Amino acid sequence: MNLSNFFNSYMMGMYVAQAFSHSLIAALIVDRAIQTWKITDPAIRQRFSLIVMVFPIFSFPLYQMINPERSSIFFRLEALFDINRWLNIELWGKVPLNLLFTIMLVCTALIFLLQEMIPIVRHIVMSKEFETEKDEEEGQYEHPVIDEVLADFCGKKPHISLIDDDELIIFSTTGKNPVIFLSTGLMETLSTDETRTAIAHELAHIARSKRPLLVVIYIIRVLMFFNPVVLVEFRRIVQEEEKICDDIAVLLTGKQDALAETLKKFSRKIEKPGLSVVKNLSEVSASLEDYSHSVHLQGRINRLESGPIQNTGGAWIRFLLTLSAIAVINYFIV
Fold this sequence. Notes:
Radius of gyration: 23 Å
Number of helices: 14
Number of strands: 5
Distance between the termini: 22 Å
Strand order of the largest sheet: 3-5-4
Largest sheet: 3 strands, mixed
Helix content: 55-70%
Shape: elongated
């Protein structure tokens, strides 16, 4: 396949190239808007990040409907940026830039498949298996600390299942009958208040997983599987989701300090990447993943320890101004 011809093809090639360009411009503008307006509320930051994910899906066909001549050579000559001109450049006179661009897209697709799609499928399968096991069980798991913790929560109590493991483990499965899994190591390490905040955090995930918006976000992520900018922005949205659930846990328990201490104990369990020789690519990926997770945990801890959480809400005018700027600028990016 001639890559130059592909990226100049009217639908698929242009769509892929412009989706990348438009998401990159959107990400730069969104980052600048968040910094300029000092937006700290994770729910609002998440909303801004959604622009970067959603906009490139519709931008190319929308612009073509507005102006069918937008892809012509005459429009490109006066455009702010023409990605195809850059993709046709040959580095050192030998390596075409469109080849490197294609490799980047393929690597992004592989990362999506290995680190996101397969784990999501596994999680869905696990949820169904655990729901089946739960239906066959009778009653709630009995544990004095768990009983004390659940006594504070109103409404339907979640099903709790203990895992016999010395590591600190807590996660939840969603679906018709969600389950929160705790390890024996976690129960032995955390205090009652810390256990309460950990369970409250998982309750927040369960509650928010039922929102249609979350399903839409995942569908968008699948559609933009090749886009490295969307990959980064999706992970930012996931990180903001953790902070939102932190806020809900604090609201449910009133134990902000206890949640910070809980996260500190999880942070200590993550080994920092060392200077030893790495044997293969999977070890590099695992080390980077652990380091990224550790940095994110420390950010959540610092946020909880900085004082009372203040989520302002609103900011719709700034959101619309940012979206308008992205729409106008990207019209001239082809």
